[in-house]
Amino acid sequence: MKHYSKWNIAAKILLIIAGICWGLIGVFDFELVGAIFGEMSALTRIIYVVFGLAALFKIALWFKKSRK
User: 51: which residues sit within 8 A by CB, 6+ positions away?
Assistant: First the structure.
């Protein structure tokens, strides 16, 4: 069984949530984060930045594993 760090698990969860949010935008033109926290409010922007950081973290891990 693989051991995943807390950061890795958190990034996976955030990316799943982000994927669902993008799916809702694509299929229903419904922005879930904006509906909950307000359209482009400061909190909405922070959430999108966290989604982006999670993606960058997973990309960095992917490149690190591909070099082994």
Answer: 14, 15, 17, 18, 21
Tokens of 29: 């033109």
Q: What is the pLDDT of residues 27-58, one digit of tens each?
A: 999 999 999 999 989 999 999 999 999 999 99
Domain boundaries, the chain: 6-66
- CA 20, CA 53: separation in Å to the nearest integer? 17
Residue keyed to tokens 């359209």: 39
Q: What's the pTM?
A: 0.81
